[in-house]
Specification:
The chain has 2 domains: 266 residues, 3-Layer(aba) Sandwich (Rossmann fold); 135 residues, Aspartate Aminotransferase, domain 1. 29% of the residues lie in helices and 13% in strands. The strands form 2 sheets. A 7-stranded parallel beta sheet has the order 1-7-6-5-2-3-4, sandwiched between helices. Strands 8-10-9 form a 3-stranded antiparallel beta sheet, with helices on one face. The longest helix is centred in the first third of the chain and has 18 residues.
């Protein structure tokens, strides 16, 4: 038994006792919310806090970790709402990757180099580009930190990693944290992909989560806090305000809450679904649609023989998607500040269309495509340097699998055990049962 699986077994055994004690968490608490089941729509944690007239944060100096996704079901942003309360003082705004307002929002330009939010007057601190931790002087001013952000449901995004670093600082300064929960946008049932091995953990594989984990941000942070996954086993006084009326089988478009791009290059739900697998292509020398209007829904290169490749790919009978041959030329990037691979060069590739999101398995699709291309183009196909694919995948399993020239459909059974074990392990932390 590997060290990873041994640790999970110990965790499962330990938390059987906790579950027997009426699921009372040691370091965290779940805020009681009113019964709203007689309504037929979803309320996020922010909606609930607003219904409670923000009683948990009144007469306090607060810091807020958020971005443009922190809106009510009526599309009102948390900063705009709290800016109207005289008895709530926003001292600091902690922004994640891509900033508070995203890269393509006009309001982002108003902040400028002074790093002051014009609506609230609060100082803005980036927790990725400039420093992983907020400065001590601002932390000393805070009574509580509020976290409200729409996560992607995918391990690759850095939001959870940045929040974990914020937990470290909050623990050092004994600042309580309130998490306003939001739905997993690609549903809370589907789990896909391997668990990262410790030696390959990175900011894009920071915790022991599969690539597609099926958990809400509140559930993940509950797990992080209870398990002591913050550096040096640090923990915080954590309160989670859960949602009302969320079913785990719902995608975000089922909830009727406003769609906000969780990242600049994720324009719609199908893109987000495929991102959970196709982002692995960043570890290869293939273009994955950057420099076009369809990131993660097309892929290609100048040397890909698409007709023969498409025939071989369709023989795998990958469920939930169809493929179409295309020619395209990547040119800059309208979604992200990076130079796309093969910038300005004509590429041949395939377009991916999601036809049944309940059947599609993005990680299996992505690894099958990568494996098949490596077989058909052994001279042209390359991994990115410094083992970047291992950091994305969470281990060297995919790279070794490709090197061994095994059939593409042999890989997913290799990480099925991880999926099963994680499905059991996460049960203690699930706040919403179907």
């Amino acid at each position: 038994m590997s060290n990873l699986l041994r640790n999970i077994f110990i965790v499962l055994t330990t938390f059987c006792f906790i579950e027997a004690q009426e699921n009372r968490y040691t370091y965290s608490s779940i805020v009681e919310i009113p019964d709203l089941s007689f309504f037929n729509h979803l309320y996020t944690g922010l909606d609930i806090l607003e219904q409670k007239d923000f009683d948990l944060i009144k007469d306090k100096n607060i810091g807020i970790f958020c971005n443009h996704t922190a809106v009510t079901r009526n599309n009102k942003h948390i900063l705009d709402i709290l800016g109207g309360y005289e008895d709530i003082n926003i001292e600091a705004i902690f922004e994640p990757e891509y900033g508070i307002w995203g890269m393509d929002d006009r309001r982002a330009k108003l902040i400028g180099s002074k790093r002051i939010d014009p609506v609230t007057g609060a100082k803005v601190f980036n927790l990725l580009d400039r420093s992983l931790y907020p400065p001590n002087w601002i932390m000393k001013r805070l009574d509580v930190i509020v976290i409200d952000i729409q996560d992607t449901g995918v391990r690759f995004s850095t939001f959870i990693s940045s929040i974990t670093k914020l937990f470290e600082s909050a623990s050092d300064h004994k600042i309580p944290i309130i998490v306003l929960d939001r739905p997993n946008p690609i549903n809370g049932l589907r789990i896909e992909g391997p668990l990262p091995r410790e030696e390959y953990q990175s900011y894009e594989a920071y915790h022991l989560l599969p690539i597609r984990h099926g958990m809400t941000i509140g559930e993940i942070l509950l797990m992080v806090n209870e398990m002591g996954w913050v550096k040096d086993l640090k923990r915080v006084d954590l309160k989670i305000i859960p949602m009302a009326n969320w079913d785990r089988n719902q995608y975000i478009d089922d909830t009727k809450i406003p769609w906000k791009k969780p990242a600049p290059y994720i324009k719609d739900l199908n893109t987000l679904i495929m991102y959970s697998g196709m982002d692995l292509f960043r570890g290869t020398n293939l273009n994955i649609g950057f420099g076009t209007e369809s990131p993660y829904l097309i892929f290609g290169s100048p040397w890909l023989a698409t007709k023969f490749f498409k025939e071989k790919l369709e023989m795998l009978h990958l469920p939930g998607v169809t493929f179409k041959e295309i020619e395209y030329r990547p040119t800059g990037s309208p979604y992200y500040d990076r130079v796309p691979k093969y910038n300005g060069i004509s590429c041949s590739g395939l377009k991916v269309s999601v036809v049944d999101r309940k059947l599609v398995k993005p990680i299996e699709i992505a690894t099958s495509i990568i494996t098949l291309i490596s077989h058909l183009h052994p001279r042209e196909f390359r991994w990115e340097s410094n083992g970047y694919i291992d950091k994305l995948f969470g281990s060297n399993q995919l790279r070794l699998f490709v090197a061994q020239k095994k059939p593409p459909d042999y890989l997913s059974p290799q990480y099925m055990h991880d999926e099963i074990e994680f499905s059991k392990f996460r049960e203690t932390f699930l706040l919403y049962k179907n």
